[in-house]
Automatic annotation (TrEMBL):
Protein family: Belongs to the PPR family. PCMP-H subfamily.
Every DYW domain range: 138-214
Record organism: Prunus yedoensis var. nudiflora
InterPro entries: DYW_dom, E_motif, PPR_At4g14850-like_plant, PPR_rpt, TPR-like_helical_dom_sf
Database matches in Pfam families: DYW_deaminase, E_motif
Protein name per its UniProtKB record: Pentatricopeptide repeat-containing protein
Annotated keywords: Repeat
GO BP of this protein: RNA modification
Alphabetized Gene3D superfamilies for the sequence: Tetratricopeptide repeat domain
Organism lineage: Eukaryota, Viridiplantae, Streptophyta, Embryophyta, Tracheophyta
GO MF, one example: RNA binding
Length: 214
């Protein structure tokens, strides 16, 4: 709801909605609102929302990136510098991307360039096959060994045919992987559902449910 209201520019309504919620707003709700503040350039509200976000998650680098962009649009260069400095500090400690998939009651975990899974040889062969198929569709590859790719290759290898591949990813899916997932869903006729730390992405027949909105 907050996302919908925010996207449509109803920032006041989104705030009222949050205030009326019976549960405490979490990171994803504040992040949605902060993104909406950025799209509609409401600096005053953005700063308040940013404070709420940082209170819950002081290491939230996405929040600093968002506020830095909002400050930049408002030409508040001192604040931009402050946010970028913070972002740099956080980057040093930043957690690595990690993707999870459940298979017959076992959770498998993947990081980028991960070779720890016993099926690694098959997974990397699968990634090469995927790469071949995507190249035919003119996708320039820079992220072919991100954990999201490994986990989806694992899903393609192990999930029964025509069943959806469901993944949980701890960061925000990158633009390259997002494009790749759309093509993979089409090329392999597979539904792929990725819950990243912002939203659900459901890839079917070359499209994503988020309509390419982050
Ligand atoms: Zn990626
Ligand atoms: Zn998406």
């Amino acid at each position: 709801m907050v996302d919908l209201l925010g996207r449509a520019g109803g920032l006041d309504q989104a705030v009222k909605f949050i205030e009326s919620m019976p549960i405490k707003p979490d990171i994803s709700i504040w992040s949605s609102l902060l993104r909406a503040c950025g799209s509609h350039q409401n600096l005053e509200l953005a700063e308040k929302v940013f404070q709420q976000l940082i209170k819950i998650d002081p290491l939230n680098d996405a929040a600093y990136a968002l506020i830095s962009n909002i400050y930049a649009k408002a030409s508040r260069w001192d604040d931009v510098n402050w946010a970028r400095k913070k972002l740099h500090e956080l980057g040093v400690r930043k957690q690595p991307g990690c993707s999870l998939i459940e298979q017959n009651g076992t959770v498998h975990e993947f990081t980028a360039w991960d070779f720890s899974n016993p099926q690694s040889a098959e997974i990397y062969a699968m990634l090469d096959e995927i790469k071949g198929r995507l190249q035919k569709q003119d996708l320039v590859e820079t992220s072919s060994h991100h954990s999201e790719r490994l986990v989806v290759a694992f899903g393609l290898l192990n999930n029964p045919p025509r069943t959806p591949i469901r993944v949980v990813y701890n960061l925000q899916i990158c633009r390259d992987c997002h494009s790749a997932m759309k093509l993979i869903s089409q090329a392999y006729n597979r539904e792929i559902v990725i819950r990243d730390n912002y939203r659900f992405h459901r890839f079917v027949y070359g499209n994503c449910s988020c309509k390419d909105y982050w």
